[in-house]
Amino acid sequence: MKKIFVVLSMFVFILFYNVPLLAVCNISATSGILLDAETGNILYNKDAFVSRSPASTTKILTSILAIECGNLNDIVTVSKEAASVGEASLNLNAFDRLTLNELLHGALIKSGNDACVAIAEHISLSEEEFVGLMNLKARTLGALNTTFCNTNGLPYTGHSTTAYDLAQITRYALKNSVFREIVKTKYYTMKWTEPKRSRYLKNTNKLLWSFPQATGVKTGTTINAGKCLVASAIKNNKELIVVILNSHDRFSDAKKLLEYGFKVKEN
Q1: CB atoms within 10 A of CB 45
Q2: Per-residue pLDDT tens for 169-185?
Q3: Is the peptide bond before 155 cis (omega within 30 degrees of 0)?
Q4: Catalytic amino acids?
């Protein structure tokens, strides 16, 4: 009888000890990863090395490269090509003038596709040339399975990355104070230099409201990519990065992984 009780106790312990791990395995996303931002250690992986379309999470690399290569106070003149970019748009018009800083806020907070092209054309001679710099930067960061064909993540054959690569890119980007400040901003009033006007922006990352420890980073959605999210959070000075690709409920998936990760870090 005593032996049966001991065996039963061990079974109950093992079952409940593994509840967080068992629960975290049922995320709806096709691909996902949870990373320790400081060490780079992988805490959870679901097909994280499989190539997928990243949608607007592409803008993480676009933005950090622009921050590093440009001057935030530079005045950018929007071209006809940039103004014509559709889908998620800031409704920029040809010959509008804004600072690079304002365009970065528009790209990261409101996911403006037109802003990304304007940024690229300001930093480089063309969007194509800027994309070449993006892919070179990705390689230097260890994102070896990433090939971007544009700056904003709009559908394009061959434009792909992996959850692991996005985590590596984000881990690097979060080391930049300008990037970190923008992606955690909930609301922002974007201002034009010419003509004088403004636009109120609300961050597309709902996790900033529903998860108190959240500090960013970027959403993305297209029909091909599905609903995507790269998110970061800090608790007890421990920072985690989660990437969710093609999810039925990206914010729930991200929250589940982050809660699991913080439990692991507490042990």
Answers
A1: 15
A2: 999 999 999 999 999 99
A3: no
A4: 56, 59, 111
